[in-house]
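FAQ: What does the model actually see?

It sees only this:
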Amino acid sequence: MTDSCRCSGGLTDRTPYEEVVLDIMLYSARLKETVAHQNSAVIVAMARMIAGTFKDGGKVLICGNGGSAADAQHLATELTIRYRGSVQRPALPAIALTTDTSALTAGANDLGYDAVFARLVEAYGRDGDLLLVLSTSGNSPSIVNAVDTARERGMKTLALLGGDGGLLKRKADLEIVVPHSGSADRVQECHITVGHVIIDLVERLLGYYR
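And it is asked to produce this:
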């Protein structure tokens, strides 16, 4: 017997590994559905805030740690380069604070890692700009400090969080908390989906979507 799908009496007899696939992917789908139902108005409000930032000549800074750092870079690139090839628009000013290894390592070495993103917000952030943070726990000191610095500088702040929201809950102007604890993976899957929906809405709000 192999791990391929076995059929008996016309019914599919799934292997244990196939059951793992179904468990993970269907749970992820249900979690996204929950986030959509609970946060559709917040997602629209986030998109409006970002679109308004661009309309007013501001820029968006994005940061996170680990997989959330990759998501920050992913979303920033889709704003600066493009999201869909079918939508022709100018580049939108977004900076992922996770991409400069010299700044990250110097900051960690000289100031301590908890201050890295706050220092970069201090360097690049201005009144009228916006900071978007991603934290699956909501407790990352580097992200908490970045939000505090952004608020001190008069920036708008948005947070994509997980679990119970952690220390970042209610710190940002708007937040979405994915109700999943114990692992980062399912939360990150929701965050990137929310990010994609926000970009789609931003393009519509700016009049680029055809």
